[in-house]
Amino acid sequence: MKLTFSPEDEAFRGEVAGWLRDNLVGEFEVLRYRGGPGDEHMFPEERKRWEQKLAEGGWTCVGWPQQYGGRGASIEQQVIFFEEYARAGAPGRVGHIGEGLAGPTLIAFGSEEQKQSYLPGIVAGTELWCQGYSEPSAGSDLANVRTKATQDTASGKWLINGQKVWTSLAHESDWCFVIARTDPDSQAHRGLGFFLVSMHQPGVTVRPIEQLTGTSEFNEVFFDDAVAADIVGEPGDGWKVAMGLLGFERGVSTLGQQMQFQNELDEIIRIAKANGAATEPSIRQRIAEAHTGLRLMRYNAMRMLSDNGSSEPDSSSLVYKLHWSSWHRNLGALAMDVLGPEAEIIESAPYNLTRLQSMFLFTRSDTIYGGTNQIQRNIIAERGLGMPKEPKGR
C-alpha cells in the first residue's frame, strides 16, 4: 500500500498537531513521553483526565463511524493522528483497550442495543476497559481457557467463575471483556463465549502482580459468580469474536506504536552522539539495523492496512507481532550498550529508572505477552504457509 496524503489530509495533520501543542500543557505537561509500555503505572489520575480532555476536543475514537461518536476519519487521517500523537510525546492512553479493541469489536459483532449502551462511555473517556484473555494455563494458547460461564436458569444471566492473569490496568478499569467456556464439555476453540463484565461488583477481585521494580500495572483477576452484563454474539461464538478483536489489535494504531519506537531510537542516537558511543563501528551498525528494521515495520503495517475494514488477520499481520517484539527487544539491548556503565546506575532507591532503563526492562516481555515468539512462528507456519500442525504430545 502506497500511502499518500492529500492537501485535506495535511490540513488535518495541522489541526491535530495544533490541538496537541495547545493542550498538552499546564497540568498535562508532566505527561509527555510517560505512560507507555513499562511506565503504565505512572500518573494514572492525570492520564484519566487527559482521556476526557481528548474527548472534549473530539480526539477519541477518531476512526469510529460518526454514528457511534467517532470522526469517521479515513485510514490516512487515522495514520496522521497516531503519528502526530506520538510525535508530540503525548502520554500512553489509559483508554486504548476500550477504543482500540472493545469498541471496534462491539461495532463489528455487537447488537445495536449493546453499541448504544457501551460505546458512549468509551468515546467520552469516562469508562475504561481491560482484557480478560490470558489465564495461568492459557497464555499464548488462548483456546485452553478454563474460566467457565454458566447461565442461571432463573434470571438468564451468565455467571463467570475463573481466573485471568497479566490483566493490564484491571485496577483502573470499569469493564472487562472476558473469554469463558460456555460448554463445560467443549475443548479448544469450541464452546467459548465473549462476555462483558463490570469490574465494580462483589464477584470480581483484582490482585496486583508486583514486579521486581515495585510497580504493578498488571494484575490477577478472580471471578466468583461474577454476573456478566452481556454476551457478544451467541454462546459458542467466542472464538470468532476473539479472533476478530485480534485483527483490530493489528490495526492502524500500530503506526502510533512505531512513532513511539522512533522517539526511543532518536533518544538512543542523541545519547550515542553525546557520549561518544556513536564512534564505535559496532554501535553504528546496530543503529543502522534498528533504523532499517523500523522502516520495514512501517512498510508491513501499510501492507496490513491495505485490507481496510477486515476484522480477520491476514498473512501480513501474522508476521507483525514477531517482527516488532524481536526488534524492540534488540533496541532495548542497544540502549543499554549505548548508555554504557550508566545503564546500571539509578538516580535513587528503590527503582527510580530513566526512560530507557524502563524501556529495556519492559522489552524483555515483548516476545512473551500477546503470543510468545514460539507461538507466533507456529501461527505463521500453520495459518500463513499452510504447513502441517505441530504434533501434540500424549
How would you summarize the topology of this molecule?
Elements: H1 7-23, H2 44-56, H3 75-87, H4 96-109, H5 112-124, E1 129-132, E2 148-151, E3 158-168, E4 175-181, E5 192-198, E6 204-208, E7 218-232, H6 238-249, H7 254-275, H8 281-305, H9 315-318, H10 320-339, H11 355-366, H12 373-384
Parallel strand pairs: 1-4
Antiparallel strand pairs: 2-3, 3-7, 4-5, 5-7, 6-7
Helix pairs in contact: 1-3, 3-7, 4-5, 4-6, 7-8, 7-10, 8-10, 10-11
Task: Provide a compact summary of the structure.
By secondary structure, the protein is α+β, with helices and mostly antiparallel strands. The chain is 45% helix and 13% strand.
Helical residue percent band:
40-55%
Spatial shape: globular
Q: If helices are DSSP runs of H or I spanning 4 or more residues, what is the number of helices? A: 12
Main CATH class of the largest domain: Mainly Alpha
- The ordered H/E elements are HHHHHEEEEEEEHHHHHHH
Major sheet: 7 strands, mixed
Overview of the molecule:
- The chain has 394 residues and is an alpha+beta fold.
- It folds into 3 domains: 7-94, Acyl-CoA dehydrogenase/oxidase, N-terminal domain (Butyryl-Coa Dehydrogenase, subunit A, domain 1), CATH 1.10.540.10; 129-239, Butyryl-CoA Dehydrogenase, subunit A, domain 2; 250-384, Up-down Bundle (Butyryl-CoA Dehydrogenase, subunit A, domain 3).
- It is built from 12 helices and 7 strands.
- The chain has helices at residues 7-23, 44-56, 75-87, 96-109, 112-124, 238-249, 254-275, 281-305, 315-318, 320-339, 355-366, 373-384, and strands spanning 129-132, 148-151, 158-168, 175-181, 192-198, 204-208, 218-232.
- Strands 1, 2, 3, 4, 5, 6 and 7 form a 7-stranded mixed sheet that branches.
- Strand 2 and strand 3 (158-168) form a beta hairpin.
- Helix 7 (254-275) runs parallel beside helix 10 (320-339) and helix 10 packs antiparallel against helix 11 (355-366).
- The mean pLDDT is 90.
